[in-house]
Prior knowledge:
The complex is a heterodimer.
Chain A: E1 3-11, H1 17-24, E2 30-37, E3 54-67, E4 70-76, H2 85-91, E5 96-101, H3 110-118, E6 123-128, H4 138-145, E7 153-156, H5 161-183
Chain B: E1 9-10, E2 14-15, E3 39-42, H1 56-64, E4 70-71, H2 72-79, H3 83-95, E5 99-102, H4 113-125
Antiparallel strand pairs in B: 1-2, 3-4, 3-5
Organism (chain B): Streptomyces daqingensis
Protein name (chain B): DUF742 domain-containing protein
Organism (chain A): Streptomyces daqingensis
Amino acid sequence: xxxxxxxxxxxxxxxxxxxxxxxxxxxxxxxxxxxxxxxxxxxxxxxxxxxxxxxxxxxxxxxxxxxxxxxxxxxxxxxxxxxxxxxxxxxxxxxxxxxxxxxxxxxxxxxxxxxxxxxxxxxxxxxxxxxxxxxxxxxxxxxxxxxxxxxxxxxxxxxxxxxxxxxxxxxxxxxxxxxxxxxxxxxxx
Amino acid sequence: xxxxxxxxxxxxxxxxxxxxxxxxxxxxxxxxxxxxxxxxxxxxxxxxxxxxxxxxxxxxxxxxxxxxxxxxxxxxxxxxxxxxxxxxxxxxxxxxxxxxxxxxxxxxxxxxxxxxxxxxxxxxxx
Lengths: 189, 126
């Protein structure tokens, strides 16, 4: 049986997560529900429904068969911030994440960036715009986002497979560099 | 997108029966919990004679995973069941030795350079 791997696709609502997944997935993206039991969501007012302790989260995903032994799943993270408690589950055991950003609404992606930075999960920022053309350069976006980690920023148009592939490859090269650093910690200590 | 016609799911009213009715009220699989991308494959012992009297949802999973392994999350999407319900059902099938299961390995949370290179090769081929 193949070994299953996963990559997350995060970013603000309507930024193109599902579009990216469908551009590279070998099957049309599927959607599934997961029941999450959570004692306190913090933002949900349960006062009127004290018995309610589960919530349903819909997520979409696609699959890529990499070779005979490896299959990769791409998960779109639920966009609404109130579902973020779920991200920890999703992020567990992932190779890394793509954070999609809309150059006109960069702030929408800040929370996703924070999430992966704090957990030291490798990520790449894909700046999604028509034909990969924007008034801003990747460098300007990188500066505007004030990335603490040297995460790659790639201009992209995730409607196209080739463009989505470039974002994925940027993420994977970054993850590979991180893995190599784990093997040989920097000298000097 | 999976067909929603012949399922327990109705666009207007949601699940027509409470999903955990299918699992006899259990919300956790017997034994270990399965991550969403856990691969499930129907075993050779799951011949039609062996599955007589097995509940229909279990038979549906066996049929789906006969041709090729599928992830828990794929089974959930194709059967329109919550993933947590599918985890319980797959736990039952595993206990009956009707499926084989492969959970994602430890290596994925701190992937090796070699594993990442294989992923990169796979993505380049797309």
